Amino acid sequence: xxxxxxxxxxxxxxxxxxxxxxxxxxxxxxxxxxxxxxxxxxxxxxxxxxxxxxxxxxxxxxxxxxxxxxxxxxxxxxxxxxxxxxxxxxxxxxxxxxxxxxxxxxxxxxxxxxxxxxxxxxxxxxxxxxxxxxxxxxxxxxxxxxxxxxxxxxxxxxxxxxxxxxxxxxxxxxxxxxxxxxxxxxxxxxxxxxxxxxxxxxxxxxxxxxxxxxxxxxxxxxxxxxxxxxxxxxxxxxxxxxxxxxxxxxxxxxxxxxxxxxxxxxxxxxxxxxxxxxxxxxxxxxxxxxxxxxxxxxxxxxxxxxxxxxxxxxxxxxxxxxxxxxxxxxxxxxxxxxxxxxxxxxxxxxxxxxxxxxxxxxxxxxxxxxxxxxxxxxxxxxxxxxxxx
Length: 389
Fold this sequence. Notes:
Number of domains: 3
Shape: elongated
Strand content: 35-45%
Number of strands: 12
Order of helices and strands: HEEEHEEEEHHHHHEEEEE
Helix content: 25-40%
Strand order of the largest sheet: 1-4-5-6-7-8-9-10-11-12-2-3
Largest sheet: 12 strands, antiparallel
CATH topology of the largest domain: Porin
Distance between the termini: 79 Å
Radius of gyration: 39 Å
């Protein structure tokens, strides 16, 4: 009996041991399978190059002063005005990064135009502005934590600005306006010849007559109501035109006075007859001068480089949302006297690779060289969509 019990105990022990071994083997296999699954999750390598292209849409207005050769126009054009005159725009920004080192670049082209009908001596005026902004910078990440990072920037921004106004004259209106101007000037010439007006008073009256007749038609040349962010390209031409017409009238008055010199007494009727006889020639001379100026195109092109220093930062609010910002300051007299830029946005990580940002951007430039004054704020909302790979 004892031997039988002994064998039964041995058999039970072996059965239990075999069961435990089988259970342990299955648990071990399951653990290995789970470990293998975890190892297949991809891990980003911070030492490889990463690329981050984006497409920004900057809905900006333009405010400030634009001057050409000493004449200045005040600009205050909202984003709605700018959008109505856009011919073509293109924008791109990108970043390449490896570890703490990064390369950033940006490109913006804006083409604006308008055709202004004046209804006077100018049948219409074509206005055009083209601007390129090319940005390049190197960055170094000085702070890098799971909550965010901070980069220092060293870069340069290239600006190319082209402005043009093309005048289309109305010959019939010019001839009619020349006749009205000569009629207004004839009375002043007659009074001067009769001694009613002094020489200084005569010139003052002629200046007032010319300004009154021509100012409305020359308004766009003088830049008093700019329809685009453009300087008064034709202001100097408008001043020369007025001066030339005043000179023509004064010379004609001097010629009539010379022809009457030596007469003991000049009757008013004789003076009026001489003045009326010269009106046709005076009208032709003024008409030729107006047509020559009002059928011209005026343009100006400037470009410059602005070195700058700055920073860029990001703070993660959650796995999906973050705050980002950028600021830089430069110029230092190399290109512009001063330029600065600020940008702040709320970002959303739409997926592991795709992101979107909604923010506000302001760029200020104070450039005063080569006959151009460009003291302008460009500011407005910016929407950006990009991808990381």
